[in-house]
């Protein structure tokens, strides 16, 4: 039996207490640390699940045609969710993603996602998993779209694409393919207004019907290159190749007054035909008559301009330049408006191969461009595309196509009143969809919007003739993007794309097509243009 002294000694002895206290704290500490570790994994998993939910619901909304919720759109939503949260990530089980259309607002999708995340430490305490869940919604943003569709209608578009050389021509595929753009932007079930402008281009553009009379030259100078052998005029020849040593090329600039009464409403160029018979630079009217279209009929030539919509233009000189030269493209070149007929340096010329000794026909003038307008149906849009692309031919001058696309969309230039920043208080976004089947080819023998380079070099700058036109194309692209216009570029059946790829607003705005998938490519652009936003 312990005496009292021994008892007091034992009571006062504290050795070993720390071990006992630590043993008592092990379970709470394990729960605290383990819980923090498991909760950290769960929080990471939840953030990833939220991102996947957002991606899925946005992809589903973008895949919808108008406000039609389909199994294809649902599959697209699931695909993007699965890509962003793969099965087995974080050891998740019972992974679920559900998306549906808002029953009270067809423009909105509602989605939820959930999973169970296994624990590592907490299972010691019989907690085997943690439940996580998120929700997300996406809706088409209220806003409107103006889209300028710029279409290459040069001669190569008459060929079939290389992937199917015996099949439908590229121009035929284009007329069907562009319908995908309309489908992708179908906004019939919401308040969005989408307007389309259409601009076909080759080595010139047909915009004469959109210009005021005072914006067009009264007296047009046509550069002529007439070929003579032993003093005898050679119709249809532009050079002396194969004609022998007695061949000579003579310059003969012809000044042709314009009869512009009713020009803006008739959308046609008219000419003062009596001047055709006058002596010009020593060559008689009969000589000049011989270089008209093959019919030789001045009446037929005039009729074709008045009734056929042949209102292509010769480009005006660069604003501020001396003479008739074309330098880099500036904002002044886009926006400066001729205020009256007394500023010929700011006016545009009348493109007319029938006044010059050119191997190219007036038929190489594309069909008329159209300003922004709504199309009530797919059929109406299809009809206009067919009309706009009815004439195919000529050489590939990307710079004239892009220059006029920016001019027609400018909110501070000649057509400012037709390009509002808002409609009914909602913003209008601007897009250029530029489609071509070839690399830049500014043929110097072609009578283009810049004249004929091999007759009189007008386009100035450093490098080759190609380099100078490429520089102007780059200028126009840069100005479009600087004005907030989103530029989409489609390369059709062409692998050399170094000249056109940089024009697109980004790599995601540059698309390619071999011809067989052209409609899908256009539809992809339409869906991407339809602006979406997360609502939760």
Care to describe what's here?
With 536 residues, this protein is α+β, with helices and mostly antiparallel strands. It folds into two domains: 115 residues, no CATH class; 315 residues, Rossmann fold, CATH 3.40.50. 30% of the residues lie in helices and 20% in strands. The protein contains 13 helices and 20 strands. Strands 4, 5, 13, 14, 15, 18 and 19 form a seven-stranded mixed sheet that branches. Strand 16 and strand 17 form a beta hairpin. Helix 2 packs antiparallel against helix 3. It is elongated, with a radius of gyration of 35 Å. About 9% of the residues have low confidence. Keywords: Membrane, Transmembrane, Transmembrane helix. This is Putative Flp pilus-assembly TadG-like N-terminal domain-containing protein. It holds the Pfam family Tad.
């Amino acid at each position: 039996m312990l005496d009292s002294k021994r008892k007091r000694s034992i009571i006062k002895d504290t050795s070993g207490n720390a071990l006992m206290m630590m043993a008592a704290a092990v379970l709470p500490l394990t729960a605290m640390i383990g819980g923090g570790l498991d909760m950290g994994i769960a929080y990471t998993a939840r953030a990833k699940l939220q991102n996947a939910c957002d991606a899925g619901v946005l992809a589903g909304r973008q895949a919808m045609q108008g406000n039609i919720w389909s199994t294809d759109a649902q599959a697209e939503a699931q695909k993007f969710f699965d890509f962003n949260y793969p099965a087995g990530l974080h050891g998740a089980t019972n992974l679920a993603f559900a998306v549906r259309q808002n029953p009270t607002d067809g423009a909105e999708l509602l989605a939820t996602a959930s999973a169970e995340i296994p624990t590592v430490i907490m299972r010691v305490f019989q907690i085997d998993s943690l439940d996580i869940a998120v929700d997300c919604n996406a809706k088409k943003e209220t806003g409107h779209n103006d889209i300028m569709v710029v279409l290459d209608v040069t001669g190569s578009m008459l060929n079939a694409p290389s992937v199917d050389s015996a099949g439908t021509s590229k121009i035929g595929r284009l007329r069907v393919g562009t319908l995908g753009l309309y489908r992708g932007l179908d906004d019939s079930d919401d308040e969005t207004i989408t307007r389309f402008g259409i601009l076909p281009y080759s080595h010139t553009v047909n915009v004469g019907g959109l210009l005021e009379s005072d914006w067009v030259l009264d007296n047009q100078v046509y550069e002529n290159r007439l070929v003579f052998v032993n003093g005898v005029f050679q119709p249809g020849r532009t050079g002396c190749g194969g004609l022998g040593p007695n061949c000579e090329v003579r310059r003969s600039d012809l000044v042709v007054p314009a009869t512009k009464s009713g020009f803006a409403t008739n959308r046609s160029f008219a000419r003062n035909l009596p001047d055709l018979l006058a002596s010009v630079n020593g060559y008689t009217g009969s000589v000049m008559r011989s270089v008209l279209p093959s019919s030789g009929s001045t009446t037929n030539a005039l009729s074709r301009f008045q009734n056929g919509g042949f209102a292509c233009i010769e480009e005006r000189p660069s604003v501020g330049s001396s003479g008739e030269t074309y330098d880099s493209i500036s904002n002044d070149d886009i926006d400066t408006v001729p205020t009256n007929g007394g500023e010929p340096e700011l006016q545009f010329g009348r493109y007319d191969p029938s006044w010059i000794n050119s191997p190219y026909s007036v038929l190489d003038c594309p069909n008329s461009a159209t300003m922004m307008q709504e199309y009530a149906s797919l059929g109406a849009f299809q009809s206009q595309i067919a009309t706009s692309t009815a004439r195919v031919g000529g050489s590939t001058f990307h710079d004239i196509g892009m220059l006029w696309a920016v001019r027609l969309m400018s909110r501070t230039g000649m057509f400012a009143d037709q390009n509002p920043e808002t409609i009914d208080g909602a913003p209008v976004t601007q897009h250029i969809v530029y489609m071509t089947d070839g690399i830049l080819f500014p043929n110097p023998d072609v009578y283009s919007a810049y004249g004929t380079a091999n007759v009189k070099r007008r386009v100035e700058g450093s490098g080759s003739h190609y380099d100078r036109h490429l520089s102007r194309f780059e200028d126009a692209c840069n100005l479009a993007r600087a004005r907030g216009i989103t530029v989409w570029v489609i390369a059709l059946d062409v692998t050399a794309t170094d000249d056109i790829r940089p024009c697109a607003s980004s790599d995601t705005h540059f698309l390619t097509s071999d011809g067989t998938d052209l409609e899908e490519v256009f539809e992809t652009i339409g869906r991407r243009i339809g602006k979406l936003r997360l609502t939760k």
